Amino acid sequence: MLNIYVLIKQVPKSDNLQINRKTGALIRRNVENIINPDDIHGIELALTLKQKYTGTITAITMGPLQAETALREAIAMGVDNGLLITDPMFAYSDTLQTTLILKEVFEKIKDYDVIITGTETSDSSTGQVPYQLSEALEIPLITDIFSYEIEKDLFKCQRNFGHESQFIEVKLPIIIRISKHFNKTRHVPLSGIKRAFEKELEHIDFNYLNCPSKIDGCNKSPTQVIKTEKLIHKRKNEFINGSIKEKIQRILHIMKDHGVEKRWMNKK
Amino acid sequence: MTNLNEYNDVWVFTEIKDHENVNNCALEILGKAREIADQLNQKLVAIVLAYEADKYFSTIKNYGVDKIIFINHIDLKHYHEKIFPELIFNLIKKYQPSIFLFPSTEASSALSARLAYQCQTGLVNNALNLELDKKKNNLLLTDKPAYGGNYSVKIVCPKTRPQMCTITTGTFQKKESKKDNIDLIEEKYNFDKNKLKIKIIGTPTRKDKPSASLSDAKFVIGGGCGIGSKENFEKLYKLADYTDGQVGGTRRPIFNDWMPEHLQIGISGETIKPNLYLAFGISGAIQHVVGITDSETIIAINTDPNASIFRVSDYCVIGDAKEILEGLLKQYENE
Ligand SMILES: Cc1cc2nc3c(=O)[nH]c(=O)nc-3n(C[C@H](O)[C@H](O)[C@H](O)COP(=O)(O)OP(=O)(O)OC[C@H]3O[C@@H](n4cnc5c(N)ncnc54)[C@H](O)[C@@H]3O)c2cc1C
Ligand SMILES: Nc1ncnc2c1ncn2[C@@H]1O[C@H](COP(=O)(O)O)[C@@H](O)[C@H]1O
Questions:
Q1: B300 lines ligand 1 (CB under 6 A)
Q2: Is B208 part of a structural domain of the chain?
Q3: Is the ipTM of this complex over 0.85?
Q4: Fewest CB atoms within 10 Å of the CB: A12, A20, A33, A60?
Q5: Are B54 and B120 in the same domain?
Q6: How many whole angstroms from A8 Cα to the centroid of ligand 2?
Q7: Are B273 and B184 found together in one domain?
């Protein structure tokens, strides 16, 4: 029986974002929100772990009320419980504040075996939360795994680390960080969708925390964003249309224009 | 509350790669860090943790440092996820730097995130620029990409120290300069290995080591996950053979064992500046894109019309990488 927690974040779908010219803030109205792409794969890993070793899965997200949708989507995929960490005091948290809040929550939960995170979020792409949570909870963070098994309280896996491929063993609890390449996600079953709407979600707010003195997203985040600007890439962005043959001819043409020619080769 | 005045000097984590050479990006950062240190009238310090650390000093000394603080120990031959953060955190407590900069390699990204937590300070990753805010007490201003690389955000860290950030390769140019008296300060290695929780079983296998550099190639053929298989990836090499090009790629092919590690392009690999970059089946993740922006022309081939790589390309081809690759090869074979 594993107590599995999967951290998910709701992020704006990034192809068509609008920024308020005056304040530099993202205009969140009319933006489609999705579960952070990496985190869907985190949910998938949680489901696989549960199938293999039995247990309960709780999806946790910190965000505004509307992030409930992300939790319901997770439940539709097969997650057992959803926990929303939400409070005006948590708004504008940077990574460090986010980590400190998550730390408090996990210290109350106590019985966690595996915490799953994505590699990074598509909106802020800091990639810092997994490392910082590992520091905060003083448990190992395992990244870039490819095969794994759990025996009692021992997690055994193969991972890439730096210049090496290693077999490692580590006692639970641990944090596992994965990316969208780790697995393929399953289809959402119809029964899941029904369950997702019926399930009651748990909420955690500022008053729930043990030592709230460090927490204040707006005033105690060490980093502050002072400006947001659209990045302009100075590229042609010309789409090459036509049949596959025409596309290939055009590519060859551009290659020639850039001095790429067939090389004279020695026949062996 | 942190007393900001007690924090002085600009530090650069001068990462040593593969127990072999000083990371290029770290050398690039030293140039910019020198400028900032001059403006602040503070010292520029290189932090070196390595085995046989002294063998890198002659290189580092050419990049304007005032001081090198180093720890030399066999356990520091490669980045270690617990040892490096602990040792460096102790250095930060002792010397209290005001600014601490890191290359945005995987090791340094991991290291800086852990350190930022230990110091309870802010960290900006993948900064695209650094400057000092003359109006506001010389606060460090950093720009970083956000929202899938579509936006740039400006970030400051006003109340805590050090101000930390990681910087992408190719952001700054290397600048040689040499100080007259460079201080060398050795600190002791002290780490209790009993507290390590991760146990490595057996002997790890070593992945490929760097040999040739991609950074000077005039024509680079890039491969990503969308290539689909090792067999297809081999065709990239064939095209490179025909055209005197060089193959490189994203991190995925390394994972899938299609490509050796030293051919990685991006923040943890090479920065390229060819006349032409031909990208097959690459999504355009920011970590990859930062390594290709100096290319004169970019052609991208991807099945997904919304792939972000198209936003940074001159020519966008919606199509199957394998099919186009085979078509190109056929042309050269028939010629
Ligand atoms: C700290 C850190 C450092 C990193 N450093 C680097 C780095 O230095 N370099 C790097 O590259 N990455 C790096 N990464 C990884 C990076 O974030 C991306 O995961 C990686 O670049 C994605 O590789 P990809 O584009 O090949 O794969 P994917 O993101 O999987 O994209 C594959 C693309 O292929 C397309 N495709 C699929 N099938 C086909 C087909 N038949 N024909 C054509 N197109 C097809 C898809 O539409 C998709 O766009 C780093 C990550 C982290 C967290
Ligand atoms: N607000 C949040 N709520 C829940 N999980 C989060 C939140 N922010 C980050 N995470 C987790 O941390 C991972 C890395 O995010 P980041 O460090 O913000 O790029 C994500 O993939 C999530 O698993």
A1: no
A2: no
A3: no
A4: A20
A5: yes
A6: 6
A7: no
Q: How far apart are CA A93 and CA A89, in angstroms?
A: 9
C-alpha of B62 from chain center: 20
Same domain, B13 and B153: yes
CB pairs under 8 A between A and B: 233
How far CA B209 is from CA of A143, B7, B251, B260, in Å, comes to 21, 39, 15, 8
Nearest residue to B110 via CA among B222, B268, B252, B259? B268
Residues B148 and B225 in one domain: no
Structural domain range at position B127: 4-195
**Phi then psi dihedrals of residue A64, to 5 deg:** -70, 170
Q: How confident is the model over A79-127, as pLDDT tens digits?
A: 999 999 999 999 999 999 999 999 999 999 999 999 999 999 988 778 9
- Cβ–Cβ gap A12/B147 under 8 Å: yes
Q: Is residue B209 part of a domain?
A: no
**pLDDT band at residue A30 under the 50/70/90 scheme:** confident
User: Do B183 and B220 have their domain in common?
Assistant: no
Residues of A with CB below 8 A from B76's CB?
Answer: none
Tokens describing residue B247: 């193959």
| Rounded Cα distance, A64 and B228, in Å | 39
Q: What is the pLDDT of residues A146-193, one digit of tens each?
A: 899 999 999 999 998 988 889 999 999 999 999 887 888 888 888 899
